[in-house]
Amino acid sequence: MFPAVPYSRFIIGTLPWYSVLIVTGILLAILLCSREEKRLQLPEDTVTDLALLLIPLGVIGARLYYVVFSWDAFAGDPLSILRIWEGGLAIYGGIIGGLAAIFITARMKKLSPLLLADMIIPTVALAQAIGRWGNYFNMEAYGAPITDPAWQFFPAGVLIPTGEGYVWHMATFFYESVWNLLTFLVLWFIIRPRRKRDGVVTLWYALLYGTGRTLIEGLRTDSLMLGPVRVSQGLSLLLAAVAAVLLILLAIYDRKKTEA
After folding, report:
1. How confident is the model at residue 109 (pLDDT cuts 50, 70, 90)?
2. Is 81 within 8 Å of 63 (Cβ atoms)?
3. CB atoms within 10 A of CB 121
4. 72: pLDDT confidence band, cut at 50, 70 and 90?
């Protein structure tokens, strides 16, 4: 059982947990995608070539997205933009960078970008579930204070240092980690084996992740903001809504095609 306060941000010496967890998630994703490459009979080294593009573009996109919507925190020290091990990666920026890598790789390999997206997207959910624990060690991505003593325990809450001592806050990073793990399990064991067309797994990810993030983001106190709007919450809601509409339209189309 993890304590309500992490013992350290570092696993050993100056090596941060945040970086170790992100790398662990990436390595597991590559391992699972390599198995999928063989199952889908894709050209050899498709996953390797994709990873060589996706990892740097994903990290760059995730960091730039966070910096753009948190510029006040970096304006006084622009070099701090490079210190990603201190936290500050936004998944939607990573997705944008990842999509760019997918389209480039698909063009190089003459493959369907939707097929490549379906191959990697379940593992993205798994990597997210692991990576969220970096927020625990960095003591970030938490929610509103918990005033009811009945809920002042981990993992319902975490203790965050303030000027008045440690205060219990909702452990929203944990809520999202669990949601992402469940999303991975649904995609990997239920949706993936029944996939009938390219892009369906990706749409289900958009629906499941978007729904969970919409709800959990509303509990956080450190959301990236655009005026009065929580950026990630708005994007998540839009993502889930579009995915739901497309999945319904595809289901109607398949039904009519079957009846014809």
Report:
1. very high
2. yes
3. 26
4. confident
Sign of the dihedral through C-alpha 10, 85, 160, 209: negative
| In-domain check, residue 176 | yes
- Within-domain flag for 5: no
Across-strand partners of 157? 170
- Does 161 sit behind a cis peptide bond, omega within 30 degrees of 0 on the bond before it? no
Q: Is residue 4 part of a domain?
A: no
Model pTM? Answer: 0.93
Kindly tell me the burial class for residue 190, based on how many C-beta atoms sit within 10 Å of its own C-beta (0-12, 13-18, 19 or more): exposed
Q: Does residue 76 form part of some domain?
A: yes
Give the residue numbers spanning the domain of 79.
10-259
Per-residue pLDDT tens over the stretch 143-179: 999 999 999 999 999 999 998 899 999 999 999 999 9
- Name the residue among 113, 69, 74 with its Cα closest to residue 92: 69
Q: How far apart are CA 183 and CA 161, in angstroms?
A: 32
Quickly list DSSP for 103-117.
HHHHHHHT--HHHHH
- Residue 1 pLDDT > 60: no
Domain count, the chain: 1
Nearest-angstrom CA–CA distance, 160 and 137: 11
In terms of DSSP H, where are the helices of the chain?
A: 17-39, 46-68, 91-109, 113-131, 133-138, 172-186, 200-217, 231-259
DSSP state of 42: P
